[in-house]
Amino acid sequence: MFFMRKADDLPTAATALPGRPDPIPTAELHHVSGRPLQGPFPEGIETAVFAMGCFWGVERRFWTLDGVWVTAVGYVAGLTPNPTYREICTGRTGHTEAVLVAFDPSVISYDRLLQTFWEGHDPTQGMRQGNDVGSQYRSGIYYSGDSQKIAAETSRDAYQQRLKAAGYGRITTEIQPTGPFFFAEDYHQQYLSKNPGGYCGVDGTGVTCPIGVGA
User: What's the whole-model pTM score?
Assistant: First the structure.
């Protein structure tokens, strides 16, 4: 079926789906914390955006960390404005599944979030994560400002050395500025809280970094 196609290559502006001018509806409050999903966030709260495969499990990894104010799932790094989940599954929007993390840097550092990112998935798989195949599952760090950019690139280089020593290949994670973050549909937000028995390959029991936490 057309809408289930898993494209490995990214679309161009000419081939991307047109999307729509208005955001798609989503939840107002975080299902776990009850805090506003889209802000406004308290003074001092910073944001980070990560993509590391199926966003259900990725989001749970981050909302459990002390110092994380709120999380949300959505779509980034694509061409189609305000895409739907069904559209990104075609591979014709260019987006990847991502998690927005609003955090208190006085409690948890950006470097600690990067550690969770690298050690929570396999960043060497290109347009896939485990059995999930397609451009929407690619790995990415989407930074805000020079300090996040430098931290992301420094951490990538350090983990690349460890992966190479362990016999693994090149990190394929894209590192680029944060662009528009399009919030995913209501039912995707905090999915594994609403559906405790739901499966996701990146959920603490599935795909993880091949060098392991703390290796």
Answer: 0.91
